[in-house]
């Protein structure tokens, strides 16, 4: 099983302690960046279907003059996350998931029991695996509750209010301002010509996504459906040798495409999403030679050296508050691309730092349950119904919006939902409102900081609970039905062993081979269908 999240390989090697000198950074000034934080964008939901968030309030700001003030912000936000975890964490043990579960009917219970049975067959001895499976199960609870027949937006709003999802402590994100951005943020217009060498370098570098040698190397590429931008094409990759031609064609035609997982792991040099670093003394840094080699060979100006600067900036935070994931993301998109509303759960609870380096991105923040509902409406009912919902929420002032331009930064918080749109400059409001200047590509570099108090709490819960994989207890009737099925299954297998002359070990061997065959067939079918699997990817 290829896990979406995993623990970093062998970080127990001796580490070289390095004390970082903290330098006061001058207040923001000098080079002016395009301030779009309060810009009211027009969002493209499909070709010919747009919505303008003219009444949605702008996201709040946090000032980070230096590393110490960033540490204060993260410490305060981490404590809020710890106090409110029962209302937002994507875990079967969270109170809000249990509340939704209690309202589901028998068909939904049967589906969840089937998923639960599948999880009990998987090897899951570590926090990484157990978190992933629990998040998957909890996400299905949310989807079943939202998708129940006759579920109205009024019921969703009421339930979100019951959980306090609309309260400020569960806001989805804040814009960062202040002097620290001089060292953590950058900005320059990026086009296909600049981007292609970076993508090729990350693809070729050992440890990058898609880094394994193949006859025809590919890059991650999601293509939005022109008739519904909340849907994506089944094929989620593009050959590297034709990537530039396709992106140029998409830009010319206005068809949105984007890559959400062009990444590199600066600690292990391996592919896939990183896990929280093991606890270590504040200021320790892994001495693995892959780090130095990785920086030297990437040739990607936006990432080379950036993880080290982030590590320096978060030095004063402390491992008990937040732990920096050494996996950095280079997220690039064309105008018209959108990522539906979601909560980032591909790894355990974390903050995300986004630096918009080129173009613009409109982040639409919604209360958690409402954001998940908006995605359901967009995918199930289509862009016109989604427009009606978003217009209603905008008119009522629900949610917040932050439009980032080059050199701006955003801190995504773990307790809310967000959708991300790359606005089309031609669709934005004309003067006297400030028009959005044209750009070639939207490019973001992103880093994750694991919320230590929440991660540590759920690690203890998941590793100490014998029933971690069976959050849904069986009723008496369900237990009797399961026992009857087991008896019937055993009888069939005993007859098969007798007919084929199989021992118990033979049976186990062939059952394992059959399971692998079934898994391969299911994976092949999933790749063919491939619809909308990007929600497991950040942003």
Tell me about the largest β-sheet: 10 strands, mixed
Q: What percent of the residues sit in helical stretches (DSSP H or I)?
A: 25-40%
N- to C-terminal separation? 24 Å
Structural class: alpha+beta
Instruction: Report the average pLDDT across residues.
Output: 83
Q: Estimate the global geometry from the Cα principal axes.
A: globular
Radius of gyration: 24 Å
Distinct helical segment count: 15
Low-confidence stretches: 1-33, 206-212, 270-297, 527-539
Q: Could you tell me the strand content as a percent range?
A: 15-25%
Number of E-type strands: 20
Labels describing this entry:
539 residues; alpha+beta; ten-stranded mixed sheet; four-stranded antiparallel sheet; 15 helices; disordered N terminus; disordered C terminus
């Amino acid at each position: 099983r290829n896990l979406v999240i995993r623990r970093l390989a062998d970080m127990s090697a001796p580490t070289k302690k390095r004390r970082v000198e903290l330098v006061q950074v001058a207040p923001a000034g000098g080079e002016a960046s395009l301030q779009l934080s309060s810009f009211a964008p027009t969002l493209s939901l499909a070709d010919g279907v747009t919505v303008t968030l003219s009444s949605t309030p702008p996201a709040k700001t946090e000032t980070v003059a230096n590393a110490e003030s960033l540490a204060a912000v993260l410490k305060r936000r981490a404590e809020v996350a710890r106090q409110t975890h029962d209302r937002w964490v994507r875990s079967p043990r969270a109170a809000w998931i249990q509340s939704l579960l209690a309202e589901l009917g028998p068909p939904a219970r049967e589906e969840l029991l089937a998923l639960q049975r599948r999880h009990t067959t998987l090897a899951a001895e570590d926090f990484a695996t157990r978190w992933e499976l629990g998040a998957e199960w909890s996400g299905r609870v949310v989807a079943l509750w939202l998708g129940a027949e006759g579920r109205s937006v009024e019921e969703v709003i009421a339930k979100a209010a019951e959980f306090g999802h609309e309260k400020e402590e569960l806001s989805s994100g804040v814009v960062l301002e202040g002097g620290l951005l001089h060292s953590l943020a950058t900005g320059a217009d990026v086009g296909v010509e600049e981007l292609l060498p970076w993508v090729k370098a990350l693809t070729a570098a050992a440890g990058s996504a898609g880094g394994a040698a193949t006859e025809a190397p590919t890059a991650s590429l999601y293509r939005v459906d022109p008739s519904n931008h909340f849907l994506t094409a089944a094929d989620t990759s593009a050959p590297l040798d034709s990537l530039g031609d396709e992106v140029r064609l998409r830009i010319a035609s206005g068809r949105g495409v984007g890559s959400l997982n062009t990444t590199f792991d600066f600690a292990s040099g391996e592919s896939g999403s990183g896990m929280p670093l093991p606890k270590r003394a504040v200021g320790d840094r892994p001495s693995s030679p892959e780090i130095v080699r990785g920086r030297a060979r990437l040739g990607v100006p936006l990432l080379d050296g950036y993880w080290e600067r982030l590590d320096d900036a978060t030095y004063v935070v402390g491992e008990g508050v937040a732990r920096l994931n050494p996996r950095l993301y280079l997220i690039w998109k064309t105008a018209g691309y959108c990522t539906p509303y979601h909560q980032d759960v591909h790894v355990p609870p974390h903050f995300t730092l986004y630096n918009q380096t080129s173009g613009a991105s409109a982040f639409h923040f919604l209360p958690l349950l409402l954001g998940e509902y908006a995605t359901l409406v967009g995918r199930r009912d289509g862009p016109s119904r989604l427009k009606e919902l978003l217009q209603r929420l905008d008119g009522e002032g629900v949610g917040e919006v932050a439009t980032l331009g080059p050199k701006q930064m955003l801190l995504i918080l773990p307790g809310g939902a967000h959708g991300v749109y790359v606005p089309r400059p031609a669709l934005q409001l004309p003067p006297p409102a400030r028009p959005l200047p044209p750009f070639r590509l939207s490019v973001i570099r992103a880093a994750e900081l694991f919320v230590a108090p929440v991660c540590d709490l759920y690690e203890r819960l998941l590793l100490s609970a014998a029933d971690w994989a069976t959050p849904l207890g069986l009723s008496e009737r369900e237990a009797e039905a399961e026992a009857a099925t087991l008896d019937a299954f055993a009888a069939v297998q005993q007859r098969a062993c007798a007919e084929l002359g199989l021992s118990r070990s033979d049976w186990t061997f062939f059952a394992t081979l059959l399971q692998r065959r079934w898994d391969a067939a299911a994976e092949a079918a999933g790749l063919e269908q491939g619809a909308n699997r990007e929600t497991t990817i950040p942003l």
